Amino acid sequence: MSDVADLILPDGVLGHTHADAAAMAEALAEQVAEALRGAVAERGRALLVVSGGRSPVPFFERLSREDLPWAKVQVSLADERWVPPSHADSNEALARRHLLQGPAAQATMLGLYRAAEDLDEAARLAEQALAGLPAIDVLVLGMGDDGHTASLFPDSPNLTAALDAGCPRRVLPMQAPSEPRQRLTLTLPALAGAHLALLAIQGAGKLATLNQALRPGPASELPIRAFLQAPLQVHWSP
To answer: Are 147 and 221 spatial neighbours (Cβ–Cβ below 8 Å)?
Structure first.
């Protein structure tokens, strides 16, 4: 079976292969916890940004049990469906249910969802809510089979702006090809400034997508391409 070691990763991008999802969750939790402790020791606080979906759940639950100064940790999201936190599809609800539990309940949740007349206004309000936040200390991204990460989907109307390294916005409205279609996403400049950036993927299909993304081509085709550079670290399990 192929693994990350078989891929030709760019200089400075580290690859980690794990036996299964549980082993990957364990390794991710330990690495993230160590980085958060370091950020709190150095700056008095830490900002962790995570992704939604089903895959991060074992990692969330494992991280929630780490001995951390959780009261000094802020947790936010790389993207969000434009649904309230009470909705089953809410990424914020997922993080609260599986990560902000036990000792980790002391962390502060900074959600992206904002009630508004339309998606553009919701993105503007989310932008205001995140204004003044420091750079991300730890970023944990996922990736879809189509090469999207966060809610940076191929062919979305705002993708070019969101992937522009000079984009002045932290948050933009985005349209996904799947329901719920209306999303909010952090932009490339907001995400790429993380002190520690991790990409966690599972399965042969996503490994094949990553391999395709490592070949030359536009980020508009496979948005994950915009992140495949140092100091990113890739974690994969079958």
So the answer is: yes
- The pair phi, psi for residue 151, each rounded to 5°, is -115, 40
- Model-level pTM greater than 0.90? yes
ω before 180 within 30° of 0 (cis)? yes
- Residue identified by tokens 């915009």 is 226
Amino acid identity of residue 69, one-letter, is P
Structural domains for the chain: 4-237 (3.40.50.1360)
**Nearest in space to 182 (alpha carbons), one of 79, 78, 81:** 81
Please say whether the beta carbons of 59 and 140 come within 8 A. Answer: yes
- Tell me 216's DSSP state: S
Query: What are the tens digits of pLDDT across the range 119-162?
Result: 999 999 999 999 989 999 999 999 999 999 999 999 999 999 99
E-assigned strand segments in 62-152: 73-77, 79-81, 108-110, 138-141
